[in-house]
Amino acid sequence: IMGPCWLKIEEADYSAVNNASWCKFECQVSKPALISPVSDSENLEMPPLTLMSLAFRTQLNVKENKQEILVASARVYENISVTETAPPEKLPCKTFTVMRPAGSSYPLHFEAETRKQRGTFMLEKSEQFLLSKFMALFEQMDPDVIMGHQLQDVDLSILLSRMKEKKTPGWHRIGRLKRSEWPKNFNKGFFSERHLISGRLMCDLANDMGKVGFHILLRPS
Length: 221
Description:
Shape: globular
Low-confidence stretches: 214-221
Helix content: 10-25%
Structural class: alpha/beta
Order of helices and strands: EEEEEHEHEHHEH
Strand order of the largest sheet: 6-5-4-3-7-8
Radius of gyration: 19 Å
Strand content: 15-25%
């Protein structure tokens, strides 16, 4: 199955699976052969997607030799068609930024300035609160596609490792499978991290595949 695509599911059991994921629809089949992609010839309309572009700013904790998150920002595009031709800057979107001070406090007058843009900038006291707030907003937006620059090689690894260390509530909402504990093979390469975001597409604009995918998604030829 090469997604995203429509699937034909035969002999589905709708009662076998209950709350195994955060998806609105769940079912189970007895063998993989009962699931098959629907042919493009049927011309089914593609559903709209929610896209979220992520960016993080970090600082090195020299004592512990760890990158810690200072700022987490997101831009969210809702109900986007895969055949959309408008450039991203002309599409309606929502943005939010959650941050915490690099030291013990914010610069003078900084908090007063950010209050003027309430809802867009949210100030937290610590990295732990920052991560909790970020995941609460992420859960609310529930993106189908997450995008970023060096998301695959850098940002996703940092985000997951910081959430694990800080025991962030709802950390498993980064994907769409319900989990009670972190995988035992966590921190053993990209594929273990990618498994944690199962149910969401990832587009890293720092690699060639991501650049092509983004171009096709928003500017089809």
